[in-house]
Amino acid sequence: MQEIALQDGVTEKRGRGRPPKSGSMTNAQRQAAFRARRKAAGESVTVTKNIPAAGDGYDDLVLENDRLREELAQARRELGEQRQAFREPVGKKWSYRQITALAEREIRHQMGEASKAASKGEANMSMLCRGYANSILLFWYLLTVGWQNDGDNGRLEALLKHDVTRNEK
Prior knowledge:
This protein has about 170 residues and is mainly alpha-helical. It has helices at about 10, 25-40, 60-85, 95-120, 125-145, 150-160, 165-169. The termini are far apart.
């Protein structure tokens, strides 16, 4: 068998793709240039997120919140002690119970006077006594705000709504 001689240009391996230009960079050079541009721009190339210093105040806020909660708890404890102290008389001062009992007695008295005046036909005197009773309730409320027991305010308001003349008939 006879071999056929090939031409000179056919024996060389043919290159694939576009032929390189004279000033082209290699992949490593392109990557180095890209990193240099990113570094010059100031943007970091990290996988994890960088937290800016201004946004890192969460821990400080948590500590301050805990401190304020402790202050609030301490203030509530002190207030509880003061409330208990206000309920008992000290020296010549009045206790909450004494003020409430006096207010209840005076409201009952004024409502009784209003009822008597209404039965005599003295509407002005009846309204005046009811006004006194309302004033006594308001004064009691202002004196005892913050230490009132459950039900005391409702009980005293019920005395104002109670019409003695209707119950007597």
